[in-house]
Design a protein that fits this description.
By secondary structure, the chain is of the alpha+beta class. Helix content is 54%, strand content 20%. The longest helix has 41 residues.
């Protein structure tokens, strides 16, 4: 039965080719759209991870979700113990201790408020590579260097190489100040982030704040999917700590944007899927209905209705699989060879910078698309086949 079904595909090559091309076109469109969706969402995720938070951050218990009049009293004091534990975890590749603080930045007669990140810049420079330095260079080993967001730099009217004064309220209530040199200006595309954030060395920030503690530990993992397992391990080993993923930390700009985009894409995907499946269904149904006389001959030779149904169902499965493989293969070659990173998209929700679409391939996309197209081909074969198979033999032979 399987061999006969396969050989039947070559009896009317034009009809088979037309069906295969219909299935291939529909499958290719569906596969391409899934790749586009996955590429956009991946861009959002990687930008958030490699320009803001890492894969997640560790704070003391309830620190992130509560208001503290004196937040430095809730900072991490046993950082060496925690870092030793984190380095022993296979999922962890990078550890970035930080302190965040408010400050005033003064250049000439202009004074602006900003929010500073005290970081180990030499370590962070390689991981946080989506900062998009538009002028100057990123902060690395410059002891008095300061890296400014684009909006903050424009408000202060400074450029790389300029000097400015940093005024910080230390934890003992006194005012600390330092002369800083602008090393570079970054532009992440997030208006709020670029308009208020600056970065200096962690040691300089601790000196200005007069503390040796750190506020948080940002982490870089081998894979973003490892976060939940790692977070559970950290909270089990240190009950006084909370571990929050980048999605939870940036719920407004990242998670809400992704949820909105995903919901929108689901609607569009349903529309495309309906059109594709109806096209496949129509082509196969029409082809089987054209074979009334052939199926009548089968029935006249003693084949049962179930035998005919098995025949057309296996044919439909062959057509669905072959057409889907053809469509996915051609779509992948076209996407990766001619369109990957060549389509510029306008800024997304919450962003001010455009980006180029990268079509991301994952095997589950192949399985899903292949399964849907093959299922549509089998369903079309069954519905059309049963109508013809149950037709009176004499009527079918006269068709």
């Amino acid at each position: 039965m399987i061999f006969l079904s396969f050989m039947n595909l070559f009896r009317n090559f034009r009809r088979t080719l037309a069906i295969l091309l219909t299935i291939a076109l529909g499958t290719g469109v569906l596969f391409s759209f899934k790749g586009f969706i996955h590429g956009v969402l991946t861009q959002y995720r990687e930008s958030t991870i490699h320009s803001h938070y890492g894969h997640g951050q560790i704070h003391t218990k309830n620190y992130r979700t509560s208001f503290h009049a004196e937040p430095w009293k809730h900072w991490i004091a046993n950082q060496e113990e925690i870092q030793s534990f984190l380095l022993s975890q296979d999922a962890v590749q990078h550890i970035f201790p930080r302190v965040n603080f408010s400050a005033l930045l003064k250049k000439g007669n202009v004074t602006m408020s900003g929010y500073g990140h005290g970081i180990q810049a030499q370590d962070e420079a390689g991981f946080f590579d989506r900062m998009n330095i538009e002028s100057g260079q990123t902060l690395t080993n410059q002891p008095n260097g300061i890296l400014l967001g684009q909006g903050l730099a424009k408000a202060l009217d400074v450029k790389p190489g300029d000097k400015l004064t940093l005024l910080v309220n230390s934890i003992d209530g006194s005012i600390s100040q330092a002369e800083m040199e602008v090393t570079g200006i970054f532009h992440t595309g997030s208006l709020d982030f670029d308009s208020r954030i600056f970065r200096i060395q962690l040691s300089k920030a601790q000196s200005l704040l007069k503390t040796s503690n750190i506020e948080l530990i940002s982490l870089g993992l081998r894979n973003h999917t490892d976060w939940d397992t790692l977070a559970a391990s950290v909270e089990k080993a240190f009950p006084q700590l909370d571990a929050a993923s980048f999605a939870a930390l940036d719920k407004v700009y990242y998670q809400h944007s992704v949820d909105w985009l995903y919901a929108q894409y689901q609607v569009i995907q349903c529309i495309i899927l309906s059109i594709v499946l109806l096209g496949i269904f129509n082509s196969i149904s029409a082809a089987i209905l054209e074979r009334k006389q052939e199926i009548g001959n089968f029935r006249a030779n003693g084949e049962s209705v179930s035998d005919v149904m098995k025949l057309v169902t296996v044919e439909g499965a062959f057509l669905g699989i072959l057409g889907s493989v053809l469509g996915i293969g051609v779509a992948y070659l076209v996407l990766k060879g001619f369109l990957d990173n060549r389509i510029e998209m306008p800024p997304g929700p919450g962003l001010t910078r455009s980006f180029f679409v990268s079509f991301q391939f994952e095997w589950h996309m192949v399985y899903t698309t292949l399964g849907l197209s093959t299922a549509a081909a089998i369903a079309a074969s069954l519905l059309a086949g049963i109508k013809v198979a149950k037709m009176p033999i004499a009527k079918a032979l006269r068709s």
